[in-house]
Design goal:
The protein contains 15 helices and twelve strands. The protein is an alpha/beta fold and about 375 residues long. It has a single domain, classed as Alpha-Beta Barrel (TIM Barrel), CATH 3.20.20.70. It has an eight-stranded parallel sheet. Strands 1-12 form a two-stranded antiparallel sheet. Strands 2-3 form a two-stranded antiparallel sheet. The chain is globular. The protein binds flavin mononucleotide and the ligand CCCCCCC(=O)C(=O)O. Ligand LXCWX6NK binds next to α8.
């Protein structure tokens, strides 16, 4: 592609050209038949707008706040692993872009750069994403390091008792992550029987017995707010509120875990995660956000903000580092701003359920 990308999706092809096949497949792939991977994007396309006219949109304010932190737009960097496979500056470049765009970065447990490197690189508001290994002391140590280094919340990813079946990774014999954070604490060596080494590593280390009662344990090792990532059902949303989490992330892990789980935008309201929660804690969502219109749709259906995974990596990988990530975030913000103006919303608070029509409503209207 000779010209500069004009939308977020165009970064994907640049990333494909820039990356070794093993890494590109790891970043872009989903589980098994990749049905949920396609659906995460397609489900947004089935939602249409009910725009309002003759409303003063001379000034459009995208800003919002999450857990009390003001951000320039409800678009946050999702936790994704191994950024140094995409660019030598890894998560430091990503964090700097998040800081420039005045948004939150969620640093992955599987980051290539350390908690300390990211913390000292810039002043982005940072949350820390946690996986819990069989060796619980690892989680406790990392949470405490994140807290000491100014991270503002813990995101517990709860959808990965084992790794999803990612067939490209099996064929490519995907390597295990280089987890610099674990140096001196825990080995990242693993052997596989000829398939994905990453998968073998995860299945050896992750604690599949993790359960709701462990939230209490996590509370006992940190004062930071705890958000649960991976909620897809009303029952789990209710449970999460009952056990006292400080926020919920509706996510299917970018379709990398259980194939044929629903597209996240389709359950955000439909499974009434939002209704179940009834405003008691913030509800965020991720999966398939590729346009500013997607951000608007997610907010109209009750999310307070969205997280963006692959597009950030593609921006990073297109040999552009911090600049590429910044461009991705800026493009999404620009498109979101235009969507607000064309829908008659001058602030995020003005976005309501009445601004969108779901597939379900369209079908009902035909009966
Ligand atoms: C390459 C890659 C690595 C990921 N690593 C993590 C991770 O370490 N922890 C986590 O909670 N989620 C991880 N995720 C899931 C993302 O946080 C997020 O849920 C997903 O990417 C959102 O979908 P999107 O890529 O369509 O935006 C990863 C996703 C990708 C694509
Ligand atoms: C402890 C290693 C976890 C690797 C999985 C990273 C991830 O969430 C993903 O690839 O998806």
């Amino acid at each position: 592609m000779a010209t500069e990308p004009v939308n977020v999706s165009e970064f994907q092809e640049l990333a494909r050209l820039a990356l070794p096949k093993m890494y590109y497949d790891y970043y872009s792939g989903g589980a098994e038949d990749q049905q949920t991977l396609r659906e995460n994007v397609e489900a947004f396309r089935r939602i249409t707008f009910w725009p309002r006219i003759l409303i003063d949109v001379n000034r459009v304010d995208l800003s919002t706040s999450i857990l009390g932190y003001n951000i320039s737009a409800p678009i946050i960097v999702a936790p994704t692993g191994s950024h140094q496979l995409a660019h030598p500056q890894g998560e430091v470049a990503t964090a700097k872009a998040a800081a420039t765009c005045n948004t939150i970065m969620v640093l992955s447990f599987t980051s290539s750069c350390t908690i300390e490197e990211v913390a000292t690189s810039c002043n982005a508001v940072r949350f820390y994403q946690l996986y819990i290994y069989k060796r619980r002391d690892i989680a406790a140590t990392l949470v405490q390091r994140a807290e000491k280094n100014g991270f503002k919340a813990i995101i517990l990813t709860a959808d990965t008792p084992r790794l999803g079946r990612r067939e490209a990774d099996k064929k490519n014999k995907m390597i295990a992550p280089q987890l610099k954070n674990l140096e001196g604490l825990f080995s990242t060596k693993a052997t596989s029987d000829g398939g994905s080494i990453l998968e073998a590593y995860v299945n050896e280390t992750m604690d599949p017995s993790l359960s709701w009662k462990d939230i209490e344990w996590l509370r006992s090792v940190t004062k930071l707010p705890i958000l649960i990532k991976g909620v897809l059902t009303r029952a789990d949303a209710v449970k999460a509120v009952q056990v006292g989490v400080d926020g919920i992330i509706v996510s299917n892990h970018g379709a990398r875990q259980l194939d044929y789980s629903p597209a996240t935008i389709s359950v955000l309201e439909e499974v009434t995660v939002v209704h179940a929660v009834e405003g008691r804690v913030p509800v965020l969502m991720d999966g398939g956000i590729r346009r500013g219109t997607d951000v608007f749709k997610a907010l109209a259906l009750g999310a307070q903000a969205v997280l963006v995974g692959r597009p950030v990596i593609y921006g990073l990988a297109a040999n552009k580092g911090e600049y590429g990530v910044r461009r991705v975030l800026e493009m999404l913000k620009d498109e979101f701003e235009l969507t607000m103006a064309l829908s008659g919303c001058s602030s995020v608070k003005d976005i309501t359920r009445r601004h969108v029509r779901t597939e379900h409503e369209r079908l009902l209207s035909m009966m």
